[in-house]
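Incident log entry.

Two folding requests arrived from the same account within the same minute. Monitoring flagged them as a possible duplicate submission, but the sequences differ. Recording both here for audit purposes.

Request one:
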Amino acid sequence: MSVRDPRAAAETVRVAIRKLLSGRALTALEISGQVGIPHKAVDEHLEHLQRSSAHRGERFVVEAASCLGCHYEFNDRQRLGRPSRCPKCKGERIDPPRFRIEAA
């Protein structure tokens, strides 16, 4: 069974992600579903977009992940992936980070 790729044939994955993130915030899972790539591959593309956005005159914005139990926010986290557990309450119900790209 073949999986249908929702991207245009000539469009790269990163171009598709950049278009998605322009003006709206999405989680890595939402990005993977809309671009048609595995969820685990999204973090690598986001890291590249984060590094290259300044050269394009854009700002890569990360809305921090937060614990759904105690509302702890992971503001100082450098990694883009979803944290596995909360350092404060040790809960595992984490609202994942959201990403968007804004014009600088």
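Request two (distinct sequence, not a duplicate):
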Amino acid sequence: MMIGMVLCRACDREVHESAHSCPHCRALRAHGERGKNKIVAGLLALFLGGFGIHRFYLGQWWGVFYLLLAWTFIPSLLAFIEAIVFFLTNDTKWEQKYGAKTMMAS
């Protein structure tokens, strides 16, 4: 990734950090939004991950599948693995993906 570039949260493509919207998918930049904390996301995944709460926190709608399959305990296992990944993710990479400078869908 080049300097001054961030990832669009809507389409995962590189966009210059000064852009007001993504030129690829037209997602608007959320002004004043605070980035998502990886410790909070990891703790939510550890303790409430079987219900997909960590995915809702990260703004990902597909946490619904965790809710629907919670009775199988498969989401709990996935969430445990995701918690470990969240905790081990490099801070720079986390900020690029979930930080305040990323693009948000309107």
